[in-house]
Design a protein that fits this description.
This protein is mainly alpha-helical and about 400 residues long. It is built from 17 helices and six strands. The chain has a four-stranded mixed β-sheet with strand order 4-3-5-6. Strands 1-2 form a two-stranded antiparallel sheet. β1 and β2 form a beta hairpin.
């Protein structure tokens, strides 16, 4: 090969080498890890939790007066996820909120009586939606209790009754659990999480992970989302307009006025006969008493349950047994247009009983009394009081031992 050819080859190879170096140096840097991480992270203009959220989350949020650390990125993200789910399924969420208007008035006084924070009412709403659903794990009732837990905290479960569907008794059982769990954990957020995972399971994880804070624990997917679902429901119910989920209190299902019918000490042989005796059908009776399981009730369980609830509809007399004057003052006041009738033991009728006959006591729940009172117009209550007084001074009433009728809070 001549010198000129060698020189041409050398120049060509040198040019190709120089060109490739220039091309490589002009290409953007690629992280060998494949993460393409920038060498410097610019300072955020706003808190990370706000950048991570699709919603305008509040500055402060708490559960049972225990602060939620929203300044932590992962906490805000997990809350945002549950907010997305509840707002995306708006019809279902709104239906749950509407049902709360019927059940919260019963639950809240019981929580207060047992020293449990009011926020725990949202657990029942998230657990069951106040429907009669059965979970895949077998939990049932308004508080979704497993059979073992229900029995441990005092509920009766057999072929005649399932007290997980007795709202007052199931709420009391849930309160007993909350109080016991608080003795273990010392904070209400952990108590709420343990209601999903289980008391001893939560305690074991706390001891193993050496942390007493729910937001710092590694949990299964369901439990790690549980408290956030409760927080999201609370936030939507309290600030619905902020998330386009606003509603008026009038849209909530109101408590249905009911009267309590004593079951007696001899038991109930047939619920069908019992319903017919009190002018309702079996489907209505069991709808208002979902704890009923069998065709009747033993004498022992009758003493335990004490009463069944029967609704009072717009035609009160249609649902009253013959010769029953328990609701007479209310009925007369409604028919006469009297207003502001105070429903207490002094105004409810006292019905005389024949000697030797079984005493049937009736009472109005507090929610029932309030609803009936509101249904009266703004006219003076003088006529109603006069009719009640006239009825109470009847000769037969004066000669009989009075039966006290009390307005009960339902708990």
């Amino acid at each position: 090969m001549s010198i000129s050819k060698k020189l041409i080859c050398y120049i060509t190879l040198s040019g190709l080498t120089l060109g490739s170096k220039l091309l490589i140096s002009s290409a953007p840097y690629t992280d060998p890890t494949g993460l393409d991480m920038p060498q410097a992270i610019p300072e955020a203009e706003e808190p990370l939790y706000r950048a991570a959220s699709s919603f305008n989350l509040p500055e402060h949020l708490n559960f049972a007066l225990e602060s939620v650390p929203l300044d932590e990125y992962d906490v805000a993200r997990r809350l945002d996820r549950e907010m997305q789910i509840l707002t995306c399924y708006k019809p279902g969420t709104m239906e749950m909120i509407r049902r709360s208007g019927r059940f919260f008035p019963v639950i809240r006084p019981i929580l207060k009586r047992y020293g449990v924070p009011d926020d725990f009412k949202y657990l029942a709403l998230v657990e069951s939606g106040f429907t009669l659903n059965v979970s895949r794990a077998g939990a049932q009732g308004f508080w979704q209790l497993m059979p073992e837990s229900a029995s441990r905290y005092g509920l009766q479960l057999d072929d005649q009754v399932d007290e997980r569907y007795h709202l007052e008794r199931a709420t009391i059982a849930a309160c007993r659990y909350f109080k016991e769990a608080y003795q273990y954990f010392g904070n209400w957020t952990m108590v709420a999480a343990s209601y999903n995972l289980g008391l001893f399971g939560m305690k074991a994880l706390r001891d193993y992970q050496q942390t007493a804070t729910y937001y710092d624990m590694i949990l299964n997917q369901q439990t790690s989302r549980y408290v956030f679902r409760v927080l999201a429901m609370k936030e939507i119910m309290q600030h619905g307009k902020r998330y386009s989920m606003d509603y008026h209190s009038k849209e909530l299902y109101a408590p249905i006025p009911t009267r309590h019918i004593a079951l007696g000490r001899s038991g109930v042989k047939s619920w069908a006969h019992f319903a017919r005796k009190h002018h309702v059908n079996v489907s209505v009776l069991k709808a208002f008493n979902p704890w009923m399981r069998g065709a009747g009730l033993s004498a022992e369980l009758s003493k335990r349950i004490a009463y069944a609830e029967i609704p009072i509809n717009s035609k009160y007399s249609d649902l009253l047994p013959e010769n029953d004057t328990t609701m007479a003052p209310v009925q007369l006041a409604l028919e006469s247009g009297a207003g502001s009738l105070r429903l207490d033991s002094s105004l409810l009728a006292r019905r005389p009983e024949a000697k030797g006959s079984a005493t049937m006591k009736h009472s109005l729940s507090l929610a029932s009394a309030e609803m009936i009172s509101k249904s009266l117009n703004s006219k003076s209550a003088a006529s109603a009081s006069e009719m009640v007084s006239r009825q109470q001074t009847d000769t037969s009433v004066q000669n009989a031992e009075p039966i006290q009728y009390k307005v009960k809070a339902g708990d």
